[in-house]
Amino acid sequence: MDRSELTELIVNNRRRKQLSWASVAEAVGRSKEWVTAGCLGQMSFDETEAATLVELLDLPAEAAVLLTEPPYRGSLPTAVPTDPLIYRFYELVAVYGTTFKELIQEEFGDGIMSAIDFRMNIEREPDPAGDRVNISMSGKFLSYRRY
Amino acid sequence: MDRSELTELIVNNRRRKQLSWASVAEAVGRSKEWVTAGCLGQMSFDETEAATLVELLDLPAEAAVLLTEPPYRGSLPTAVPTDPLIYRFYELVAVYGTTFKELIQEEFGDGIMSAIDFRMNIEREPDPAGDRVNISMSGKFLSYRRY
Amino acid sequence: MDRSELTELIVNNRRRKQLSWASVAEAVGRSKEWVTAGCLGQMSFDETEAATLVELLDLPAEAAVLLTEPPYRGSLPTAVPTDPLIYRFYELVAVYGTTFKELIQEEFGDGIMSAIDFRMNIEREPDPAGDRVNISMSGKFLSYRRY
Amino acid sequence: MDRSELTELIVNNRRRKQLSWASVAEAVGRSKEWVTAGCLGQMSFDETEAATLVELLDLPAEAAVLLTEPPYRGSLPTAVPTDPLIYRFYELVAVYGTTFKELIQEEFGDGIMSAIDFRMNIEREPDPAGDRVNISMSGKFLSYRRY
Amino acid sequence: MDRSELTELIVNNRRRKQLSWASVAEAVGRSKEWVTAGCLGQMSFDETEAATLVELLDLPAEAAVLLTEPPYRGSLPTAVPTDPLIYRFYELVAVYGTTFKELIQEEFGDGIMSAIDFRMNIEREPDPAGDRVNISMSGKFLSYRRY
Amino acid sequence: MDRSELTELIVNNRRRKQLSWASVAEAVGRSKEWVTAGCLGQMSFDETEAATLVELLDLPAEAAVLLTEPPYRGSLPTAVPTDPLIYRFYELVAVYGTTFKELIQEEFGDGIMSAIDFRMNIEREPDPAGDRVNISMSGKFLSYRRY
Amino acid sequence: MDRSELTELIVNNRRRKQLSWASVAEAVGRSKEWVTAGCLGQMSFDETEAATLVELLDLPAEAAVLLTEPPYRGSLPTAVPTDPLIYRFYELVAVYGTTFKELIQEEFGDGIMSAIDFRMNIEREPDPAGDRVNISMSGKFLSYRRY
Amino acid sequence: MDRSELTELIVNNRRRKQLSWASVAEAVGRSKEWVTAGCLGQMSFDETEAATLVELLDLPAEAAVLLTEPPYRGSLPTAVPTDPLIYRFYELVAVYGTTFKELIQEEFGDGIMSAIDFRMNIEREPDPAGDRVNISMSGKFLSYRRY
Amino acid sequence: MDRSELTELIVNNRRRKQLSWASVAEAVGRSKEWVTAGCLGQMSFDETEAATLVELLDLPAEAAVLLTEPPYRGSLPTAVPTDPLIYRFYELVAVYGTTFKELIQEEFGDGIMSAIDFRMNIEREPDPAGDRVNISMSGKFLSYRRY
Amino acid sequence: MDRSELTELIVNNRRRKQLSWASVAEAVGRSKEWVTAGCLGQMSFDETEAATLVELLDLPAEAAVLLTEPPYRGSLPTAVPTDPLIYRFYELVAVYGTTFKELIQEEFGDGIMSAIDFRMNIEREPDPAGDRVNISMSGKFLSYRRY
């Protein structure tokens, strides 16, 4: 069993047991964003978290070790995503990429926003003109080292 | 003059006049995120906004019309961005893309977050462990129509 | 079983049972365009619709849940399609893409035609010089938000 | 002067003279869809139409011949378009491509919809829930020859 | 069984039974060019032709329906073919593509040669300096519609 | 001046002088297919032919040498052509590529059809159902050497 | 069994039987370069050669026919090879490609070196500064036909 | 002036002065293969060689330094070359790549043939069946270091 | 069994037996960098080393030969890696590539750093501001041969 | 003037003034690695450093501001580099990428080596068997945040 086979098993068992990602996250004791990413093969769990998942989702014993290893990351089958929901985020990068760059560097100087020391929150905002998806991201700023 | 030549002129004149994007935005009367994107050729302005920019940035008269036209969008020279700051956002899509999809659809059902009826805010959060870049995004949820 | 295996099963059983897409759509109670897209793994059904399909097409029980989940969309194996019928539509985008942009924006201002709040109809028009394929599309116009 | 330089000149002069595409089409005496595509370098005009355009848009004399020649078609700079409005049409092909194929072939048998013997109409449909873009396309069906 | 599995079966059984493509075509009663293309998954047969193939090549019963359906066309694994024989044809398009365009349009005006209403013949021409492959192609000319 | 600038000059002067490719070929004393390919930068001329072209098309003196040099071949801007006329030939390779391979090798054994020792003829065939483009190609068969 | 499965079988059996390519070639009675290429699925054998290979390498009976058929050529999984030994040859093409072109055409005029009527020899040259790989290639020169 | 502009100048002046590559190489005192590669921007010369080239080819003074600098190598505009002469070498890599690997490693063990400590010779071999291009390459074998 | 299946087996057995790469390397008697690369299918072992690995990792007997053969190298599924840790090294090449070139050539003249006669060491450097990854690489400099 | 034009100017003036990168770095007061990268458009300087460069390299006044701005990074014209020196580093990523990942994560857990908080040193190591290029890199380890 490799990690992508495990991801497929998690996805199937979650569907069969009718568990929401929010409830899986609650069982693990972390945010739904991070736990979902981990279950989809993008994050590594500690041993307690892995044990919880193995029990909750009826996974085989060997899954426990596999879930604690850093996975080979990258969740999409193509460089430009074809799924419309995911493509909209790629479009934001294509359209706003240079804006991200200008504004972050105007405020912080030369460097980047970390995608590693990073957290994210996705929420629903009721709105009479149509509910909105609100996403807040927070990444540590890292300055280019000069030497 | 086409829009990309105008963008280059705006970038050069802003540098020469030492104006921050925040001050350009203030003159225009909109958020710094949207105004910066527009100055970089990704959004269209109304006539008053365009006139303000022409004066503020010493642009030629013909720029006024050009700034009000919808541009051919896309701010990056390659499908996978090479600049590290911008790449980190692409990496978020690559790593978290399927997570965005699962969580938005768990909450809202089948549909997408609009990248058109969309707003964004970039801010600095002081943090003793290193300041953080905070980005909040808000997009209208659009359900797939069934027919 | 994942969604692409289910799609293959639907395609095979429909062939074996000699059902037209129009008759499948009638059983589901939606348009043939939307139902066909759904059966090919591009749309999600509600529970009643899914139950109808499971019975009509002899699908296994677990298919019922799978059909109600938003699929990872994208129906083509390559970025530029090789099948001549499908390629002709890609060719329309390549040739008429900038025309779509100019005329929609001349009429509506800056924004896009939604591909989500969208419906489509495909019909045969008899014509002595050779019958014609008529396709009508209707998508909500979405304006870029200014903020 | 080659055709792409001429296209740029047409685009600039139309902007300067503040002419809508609809009025250019009316002067030429053809539909706005076809005339716009031609002005953007995707169709060829006859001599009378070309003469009208030369006068209307202050084009140099040599443009008259150039406008009557079949252009090297293809209006987009990349295989997958980056502009969100144009991308939405590419997305329709990606999502609905196999649906187009199934339904056209269910109705007509094996063949394609012509993209050459083809006409198109783009219209605005007022709608209280937000106006809609309506596009109707009509292409001759061509059967594969058997020999 | 899908069409590509059927193609593999046809290829294997033809080899085992030591049948030439010419004899398969004769049994079907069509040209060797069209029948070979169909057997390789690029054309659809009528019911009589399909029945002939099923018997001649020991195919399972379900193949009969599959052979009458329009296949997803495209016979090559990469956009630029790697096999030298097939590459030479791609090279002809790369080298002579603009010549095809100039000469067809000089003779016919603006339009294309159909690849659907099309037939082809491949023959051997004995030549003391080395035999030659002669290919003749005939496609209906289609004019761009003006509207 | 390099070869692509010379090609552009030839194309412009031919247009200005209203010469057909057939008449250019007649002046050169070769087929219209080969002469057109050469004028478009895909073949090299001998000195007499080059001198004829220089005079006929008002080319500068240095063009004479340039026309006799083997050019860097390849006439298309993208690997998959976007122009519909040229694309149809690429589609023939995609659809019929494996058929070319099977039939040529059934007749000749293992080898290729030369694209170098090659000639081609493009003609119009009147047909009441719509005139046809007839193309005949003849290439020397080359066997793989065994050693 | 298709040709790539046969190639895998040959590779495995040769390893198991500890045969060098040179000894396989000797058994077949051809050069080691051509026989190795053929065993790796790039050349076709005659019936006697195929029979020898079937016996020598314990191949199943059906392999005999398969080895005599022209394979779909192309031995590498990516357009730019990743294996360093093979990449160095690609690098030679990238760096020396235009040199090959200039020198061959200076000597022979306009044409190509055949890769079909071609033979190759790979040898070891002892050298105190480090042994050298010597490769000699010989391909027939083919002139472009003028017509 | 950068190196690619210098290459263009060298190519043009060599043509104007009617010098063969062989005679340029003789003047420089190195092989025609290496000198041609250098003149085409792929190798660096020493100061004496550079001075010879500057005088022989009427280059401006600043060329002398530029010719002694290591260039950014890579002489082809696309990853898969379109020119048929150069493509044939790419085809050799595609078809014989794995053969190169097997035979070099059978003889030498694990390592590569250097493309840096490398020399090459291109010659014409008269042959009644058509003259042949003979290319001999010699590269130092480099073993993978084990540590 | 081919090499990639063997790699998968090694990865799984190492996990099951809870062995660190450092301890595997110690058993083999080589550096952890080289042994890990070899276990991941990028280097070839000698017979003693292979035997050690077969015993240590419970590999089948046939693995012993396979481990001594030069593998087809290249450990990543895409040309631009998606895993963030590995991407950072690609980013270094993208950002510092021209710097590597300038500084190595300023010091050594025209040539390359060998990636074959190469060794590498990865170590942890404790640092109060956050521990650091230290990588030292050493490759033999190879001069371009002049001939 | 944009940054890439400035880079070209720096490269030309450095050549004309015969300054080594080491001496430029000494004048700036930073390492040769970082200064070279900055001069090649990959790093931003502070105002004093920029002023030094303007004077040392005869740059125009406006260069001073441009040198202090974060550039759009990425120094290579293609995703896979064609220059052999730079390619060797890409090859290291292709071959050793998974080894980097395994060993860094074995030592540090799940995270990455920063390419931002990063420094590098390139040195020559004399060696009787051929001098060696020694490169040492040091990047801060960043752990994935769990939340």
Strand content of chain A: 15-25%
Mean pLDDT of chain A: 96
Total strand segments of chain A = 2
Write the element-wise H/E pattern of chain A from the N-terminal end onward. Answer: HHHHHHEE
The low-pLDDT segments of chain A are none
Strand order of the largest sheet of chain A: 1-2
Task: Characterize the overall form of chain A.
Answer: globular
**If you consult CATH, what is the topology of the largest domain in chain A?**
434 Repressor (Amino-terminal Domain)
- Which structural class fits the helix and strand makeup of chain A? alpha+beta
Residues in helix, % of chain A = 40-55%
The name of the CATH architecture of the largest domain in chain A is Orthogonal Bundle
Tally of helical runs of chain A: 6
CATH class value of the largest domain in chain A? Mainly Alpha
Largest sheet of chain A: 2 strands, antiparallel
Terminal CA distance of chain A: 45 Å
Radius of gyration of chain A, in Å, reads: 18 Å
Question: Could you explain the architecture of this structure?
Answer:
Chains A, B, C, D, E, F, G, H, I, J: Residues 75-147 form the Cyanate lyase C-terminal domain. Chains A, B, C, D, E, F, G, H, I, J: The active site is at 88, 91, 114. Chains A, B, C, D, E, F, G, H, I, J: Belongs to the cyanase family. 10 copies of one chain form a homodecamer. Chain A has helices at 3-16, 21-28, 32-39, 47-56, 63-68, 84-108, and strands spanning 111-125, 132-143. The mean pLDDT of chain A is 96. In chain A, 48% of the residues lie in helices and 18% in strands. The first copy, chain A, folds into 2 domains: 3-68, lambda repressor-like DNA-binding domains (434 Repressor (Amino-terminal Domain)); 84-143, Cyanate lyase, C-terminal domain (Cyanate Lyase, Chain: A, domain 2). The termini of chain A are far apart. With 147 residues, chain A is of the alpha+beta class. In chain A, strands 1-2 form a two-stranded antiparallel sheet.
